[in-house]
């Protein structure tokens, strides 16, 4: 049968011309409305601000405090010295204050100049670590024979000890063992 003789479909059965992609997409989504959500922010939250300048300022103040040597008269003669590192329990400090630890060594700095006292203290601490001593007594004096009766070594010894890694804590002794003219020093145990 030739194409001429073939019956033709009715006009209503003829398929429409194919749509281009964009027109097909628009036709498929005709009447669709986008959803509006005003209660949830889908953006990730911004990271919190970092106060870098404040941190730098605080660090420089701490560094400066560690380097400065305290001057004379910054501490009155009646003041008690007390220092403890993070992790030292309050119960340990109470025992240290009461003199309940066995004193394994003793250093008397009376009559020494500041440089002599600094060398003597450093050498004493090295010796204590080598001997594995845990608690020692250091006499720095009350400054009663100093000009103006102001302690010279007391604030310096406190400063020097606080800088030493092996020193865990120190506190002024009871009156029976020197009072505010001496301190008990708790040293770190070797591992």
Can you describe this structure?
- The chain is an alpha+beta fold and 191 residues long.
- It has one domain: Ribosomal Protein S8, Chain: A, domain 1 (2-Layer Sandwich).
- 32% of the residues lie in helices and 13% in strands.
- It is built from 5 helices and 5 strands.
- It has helices at 21-28, 52-67, 90-98, 114-131, 153-163; strands at residues 82-84, 105-108, 135-139, 167-172, 182-187.
- The longest helix is centred in the middle third of the chain and has 18 residues, at 114-131.
- It is rod-shaped.
Q: How big a fraction of the residues is strand?
A: 5-15%
Extract low-pLDDT stretches.
68-78
Largest sheet, order of strands side by side? Answer: 1-4-5-3-2
Shape: rod-shaped
Subunit arrangement of the protein: single chain
What is the first-to-last residue Cα distance? 106 Å
Core attributes:
single chain, 191 residues, 5 strands
Q: Quick gist of this model?
A:
The chain has 191 residues and is α+β, with helices and mostly antiparallel strands. It has 5 helices and 5 strands; from the N terminus they run ααβαβαβαββ.
Topology:
Blueprint lengths: L20 H8 L23 H16 L14 E3 L5 H9 L6 E4 L5 H18 L3 E5 L13 H11 L3 E6 L9 E6 L4
């Amino acid at each position: 049968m030739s194409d001429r003789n073939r019956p033709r479909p009715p006009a209503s059965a003829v398929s429409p011309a194919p749509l281009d992609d964009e027109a097909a997409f628009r036709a498929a989504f005709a009447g669709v409305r986008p959803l509006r959500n005003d209660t949830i922010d889908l953006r990730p939250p911004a990271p919190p601000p970092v106060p870098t300048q404040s941190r730098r300022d605080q660090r420089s103040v701490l560094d400066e405090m560690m380097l400065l040597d305290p001057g004379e008269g910054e501490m009155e003669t009646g003041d008690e010295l007390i220092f403890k590192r993070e992790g030292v329990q309050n119960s340990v400090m109470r025992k240290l204050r009461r003199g309940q630890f066995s004193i394994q060594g003793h250093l008397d700095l009376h009559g020494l100049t500041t440089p002599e006292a600094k060398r003597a203290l450093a050498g004493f601490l090295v010796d204590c670590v080598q001997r594995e001593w845990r608690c020692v007594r250091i006499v720095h004096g009350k400054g009663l024979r100093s000009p103006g009766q102001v302690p010279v070594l007391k604030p310096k010894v406190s400063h020097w000890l606080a800088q030493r890694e092996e020193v865990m804590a120190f506190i002024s002794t009871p009156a029976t063992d020197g009072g505010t003219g001496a301190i008990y020093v708790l040293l770190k145990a070797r591992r």
